[in-house]
Design a protein that fits this description.
This protein has 6 helices and 33 strands. By secondary structure, it is of the alpha+beta class. Strands 3-4-5-6 form a 4-stranded antiparallel beta sheet, with no helix packed on it. Strand 25 and strand 26 form a beta hairpin.
C-alpha cells in the first residue's frame, strides 16, 4: 500500500479553486507481514507478506530499498546465518510454492531467484534453514517434511521428503545436520537430513536409513523452539509452551533415551517465572540472551540461559487486536526486527543483546552483486491447479513402473514361446536368424567400403539398394498417402476459411466499434471488456421506419373498415366534387381559367 501526504496550496490564479498537492511518502505492505530476516549488508532486512510481495528495507533510512512482486500470498520466511557467509533466503506461499533466493546484494538490488518448486498444495506448517544455508526444511500439513539442498546461493534442488509422526508446530536446526521438530501430541523429533548430494529414489520418498528420525515425549506441546548455542552431542533447546511458559529442555544424548510416544515424558530443564501474553510471534537467541515476540504485540528480552531468569524488558510494538507480531529476527546493532499482522515492520532496541556478527566476505560481495546485471528469473505464477513436485514424481514413477512391467511381460511371453517351440522349429529359426545376421553384416561391410572408397569409385547411397522395384513401390505408396492427406487438409482449410469469412463478414465487418478486452497478466481469468457497437445502416433504418408506418396505416384502415366503425363509407376516397358550372367549360382559355379558379 502506498502512503500519501496532502498539502493544500493557494487558489489557482485562473480557476480560483484550491488545489491539493499529493506526495508519496512510502510504499508499505498491504495486510499482514509474515516473515522478516536480516540481509547480507548488515544494514537492511527483507520481509514478506500476504500482499504477495518480498521487500527490502534500509535500516539506516527506514525506507523501502527494493520490492519483488510474487503471485500469491507469502506465509513464511527463512534465512541462513549471516555469520556463516551465506546469503540464502527462502519464502513459502499460501499455495505451497517454495522459492529460494540469492540475497547477497543486500539493500542494493532485489534477490535473484534460484529455485521455485510447489512442494505442497497449501501453506506449510513450519520452515527452517540451517546456519550455513545448505539445507532448507519445510513441514507440510500432510505430515511430510521436505528437504531442499543449496550447494550455493545460486544452486538449489529439491532432495525429497520424509514422514513425521504428526503435523509440525515448530522447527529449528540445532546444528547443520540436526533438525529439531515439535509436532502435535507433545512430541519432539530429532531428524538427521540426508547427506549432501543424496539422490532420492523414484517418487522422492527418502528411505528411513537415509534420514534418521528419533522422537521423545515432552511435558507440554511446544509452539516455538530454538536451539541454544554450545551444545552439539545433546542439543539443548529453548521453547515456548502451549501454556505460554518459556522453557528449556536437554534432549537425550543416547539413542535408547529417544523412547518415542510410548516412553516417559521429558521434563523441562528450566521454566521461566514469567509467561508470555499470547505466544506465536517468534523466538530467537543470541549467545545467552533470549528474545520473544507474541501475538499480543509485545517483544520481550529474557534474563538467564534460555530465559530462565524471567522477562527483563517488554515493549508493545504491534496492534494486538490484529494479531500482534508474526515473526521476529535479530539485526545488527543489538536490535530486533518484527513483522506484524497489523502490516507494520518494527525495529526496536534490545539492551543486553549481543551484536549480530556478519561475515566480512558478505559485506565485500554486496556491492559487486548489486552492480551486476539482473539475472533472468524463470519464475512462474502460482496457480491452484499446478501439480506438486511429489505428484509429478509419483506420476513419472508410475509410468516407469508400467513400462518395466510391460517389458517384463514381453520377456515372459518370449520365454513361453521359446519353451513351446519344437527342436526342429528352433533349429530352423536359429538358421534363419544366422542367415539374416550374415546378410546384414555383408551389407554393412559393403556400405562401409563404399563410404571409405575414393570419390571417383564411390557409388551413390541410393544405388546400393538391393530391390529397386520394391523401393519404387514404397515411394509410390507414400506419395499416394501424402496426396490424400494433402487433399483432405486443403478441403478442411477451405471449409474453415469459408466459415471464418462468413463469421467475419456478419459479426466483425458490420461493427462500428469492435469488441476488445484488457486482460490481466498476473490474475488469470480477470478481463475488462468494452461495449461493441454495430454500424448504423441509414437505408435499412429508413426502410424499417417506412415499413412500420405502413403497418400502422394498414391497421388503421382495417379498423375503420369494420361496420361498427362506419365501414360502409370509403374513407380514403379521393373523388372531388366538381361544381356544375365547371362542366360547361368552353374552349375559351379565359373561361377555362375562371372555371378552374371556381373549382379551387
Amino acid at each position: 500500500a502506498e502512503a500519501i501526504q496532502t498539502r493544500r496550496t493557494p487558489r489557482h490564479s485562473i480557476t480560483g479553486v484550491d488545489t491539493i498537492d499529493v506526495f508519496k511518502v512510502g510504499d508499505f505492505h498491504a495486510g499482514a507481514v509474515t516473515g522478516v530476516a536480516p540481509l547480507a549488508d548488515g544494514a537492511s532486512v527483507a520481509t514478506c507478506g500476504v500482499d504477495g510481495t518480498l521487500r527490502g528495507w534500509d535500516l539506516r533510512t527506514g525506507t523501502l530499498a527494493w520490492k519483488r512482486t510474487l503471485s500469491s500470498p507469502q506465509t513464511a520466511m527463512a534465512a541462513a546465518s549471516l555469520a556463516s557467509g551465506s546469503a540464502v533466503l527462502a519464502v513459502a506461499s499460501k499455495t505451497g510454492v517454495v522459492r529460494v533466493f540469492d540475497a547477497g546484494a543486500g539493500a542494493g538490488a532485489p534477490p535473484r531467484l534460484t529455485l521455485r518448486a510447489r512442494l505442497m498444495s497449501s501453506a506449510p506448517d513450519a520452515m527452517a534453514m540451517n546456519a550455513s544455508g545448505t539445507i532448507l526444511a519445510i513441514a507440510a500439513p500432510n505430515c511430510s517434511c521436505w528437504f531442499v539442498e543449496m550447494a550455493s546461493a545460486s544452486a538449489a534442488r529439491v532432495v525429497g521428503y520424509m514422514t513425521l509422526p504428526a503435523r509440525a508446530l515448530a522447527m529449528a536446526f540445532s546444528s547443520d545436520m540436526k533438525l529439531i521438530v515439535s509436532v502435535v501430541g507433545s512430541e519432539v523429533c530429532a531428524v538427521t537430513p540426508p547427506v549432501a548430494g543424496f539422490i532420492a529414489p523414484a517418487g522422492l520418498a527418502i528411505p528411513p536409513r537415509d534420514a534418521r528420525l528419533q522422537t521423545v515425549l515432552v511435558d507440554t506441546p511446544l509452539v516455538a523452539i530454538v536451539a541454544l548455542a554450545g551444545f552439539t552431542d545433546a542439543p539443548v533447546i529453548a521453547a515456548v509452551g502451549a501454556d505460554r511458559t518459556i522453557r528449556t529442555y536437554a534432549l537425550p544424548d543416547e539413542d535408547p533415551l529417544w523412547t518415542g510416544k510410548r516412553g516417559k515424558a521429558l521434563k523441562a530443564k528450566t521454566i521461566a517465572p514469567d509467561g508470555m501474553g499470547k505466544p506465536g510471534g517468534g523466538l530467537v537467541v543470541n549467545g545467552d540472551v533470549l528474545a520473544t515476540a507474541g501475538n499480543d504485540g509485545g517483544v520481550a528480552v529474557w534474563e538467564g540461559a534460555g530465559g530462565s531468569g524471567g522477562a527483563k524488558r517488554t515493549r508493545m510494538v504491534h496492534d494486538s487486536t490484529q494479531g500482534g507480531a508474526a515473526a521476529l529476527t535479530l539485526v545488527p546493532g543489538g536490535r530486533l526486527a518484527t513483522a506484524g499482522s497489523d502490516g507494520a515492520v518494527v525495529v526496536t532496541s534490545a539492551p543486553g543483546m549481543p551484536e549480530l556478527v556478519v561475515d566480512p566476505t558478505l559485506l565485500g560481495a554486496c556491492a559487486d552483486k548489486a552492480a551486476a546485471a539482473p539475472a533472468a528469473d524463470l519464475d512462474n505464477y502460482d496457480a491452484d491447479d499446478e501439480p506438486t513436485v511429489g505428484a509429478l514424481a509419483m506420476s513419472a514413477h508410475a509410468v516407469s513402473a508400467a513400462n518395466a512391467n510391460a517389458a517384463a511381460d514381453a520377456d515372459a511371453a518370449a520365454a513361453e514361446a521359446e519353451a513351446a517351440l519344437s527342436p526342429e522349429a528352433a533349429l530352423a529359426r536359429d538358421a534363419t536368424a544366422a542367415k539374416i545376421a550374415d546378410l546384414r553384416k555383408r551389407l554393412e561391410d559393403t556400405i562401409l567400403r563404399n563410404e571409405t572408397a575414393d570419390e571417383r569409385e564411390k557409388i551413390p547411397r541410393g544405388d546400393l539398394l538391393v530391390d529397386q522395384e520394391f523401393r519404387a513401390q514404397l515411394v509410390a505408396e507414400g506419395e499416394k498417402r501424402v496426396a490424400e492427406v494433402r487433399r483432405g487438409v486443403v478441403m478442411e482449410n477451405l471449409r474453415r476459411d469459408y466459415a471464418a469469412s462468413k463469421i467475419k463478414e456478419e459479426c466483425w465487418d458490420t461493427m462500428e466499434v469492435h469488441g476488445s478486452a484488457v486482460v490481466a497478466f498476473k490474475t488469470p481469468g480477470l478481463a475488462v471488456n468494452n461495449y461493441p457497437l454495430k454500424k448504423e445502416d441509414r437505408a435499412a433504418k429508413m426502410a424499417a421506419r417506412v415499413a412500420f408506418l405502413r403497418r400502422v396505416e394498414m391497421a388503421e384502415e382495417e379498423f375503420l373498415a369494420r361496420p361498427e366503425n362506419g365501414g360502409g363509407e370509403d374513407i380514403f376516397s379521393l373523388k372531388i366534387e366538381v361544381p356544375k358550372e365547371a362542366e360547361e367549360v368552353v374552349d375559351d382559355p379565359a373561361a377555362a381559367a375562371a372555371a378552374t379558379a371556381a373549382i379551387e
